[in-house]
Amino acid sequence: MFTKGEEGPLSLHYGCRHGHQNFGGEWKMLPLPDKQWFVYDSEGKRYGAYMGKDVANNTLQNQTEKTEIDPAIDAVADGYALTADTIEELAALMEVPVDELVNTVNVWNASCENGVDEQFHRPSDQLAPVSTPPFYAIPCIPEILNTDGGPRRNEKAQILDVDGEPIPNLYSSGEFGSIWAAKYQGSGNITECMVFGRIAARELIAKK
C-alpha cells in the first residue's frame, strides 16, 4: 500500500513497525497535504491489502469459504471510494496529476518485481504490485485515535500535584493521565485501564 499526496509522489511508508517510523519513533497521524489517497487494485480489494497483512489473514481465516473478504459496505456505490479501469482514469477522478500517479505506481510495481523497496525499505514479504484492474482510491481523512494526556500519575496510579507529590486518595487509569503521552502503543489504552485499575484498587485496599 502507498499513499498519494496532491502533487503525486509517495508521501509516507505506512507499513513498518511502531518505533521505526520516520518521526523519531513516535506514532503520529500521516502528515496530510490538501489531498491524500490510498490506492490499490482489485487484488488489494479482495484480500484487504489496505487493512494490513495480519488483519487480512485473520479475516480470511474466520470466514467459512476462506476465499475473500466480504465487505460490510460497497465502498464505491456508497461514495467512499473511486474506481477506474486504468491508473490514468483513476488519477483524473482523484484530480491529481496523471503523469505523477502513473510514475508512482510504476516505481512501486518495479520495487515489487525486484523484491526491494528502495524508497521506504518495506519488507519484501509485504510488497504487492498495484497492477490488476479495476483500480481503487480511498481518501485518507484525519481522525482522532485517542486522547492521551491529562494529569500525571505515578507507578501506584496516584495522581500527582504540580510538585510531583501524590494527591491523597486520588487515582486514575486508562487515558486519564496515560503513560503514552507522546508515544501511543496499539491497544495501550485498554491495557492501561486494566493494569492501572488493578493497581489503584490494590493501593486502596491496602489502606484499609
UniProtKB/TrEMBL annotation:
The organism's place on the tree of life at top rank: Bacteria
GO molecular function: steroid dehydrogenase activity, acting on the CH-CH group of donors
Protein's recorded name: FAD-binding protein
InterPro entries referenced in this protein's UniProt entry, alphabetically: FAD-dep_OxRdtase_2_FAD-bd, FAD-oxidoreductase_2, FAD/NAD-bd_sf, Succ_DH/fumarate_Rdtase_cat_sf
UniProt key word Oxidoreductase: yes
Domain FAD-dependent oxidoreductase 2 FAD-binding: 39-189
Gene source species: Eggerthella lenta
Alphabetical keyword list: FAD, Flavoprotein, Oxidoreductase
Cofactor entry: FAD
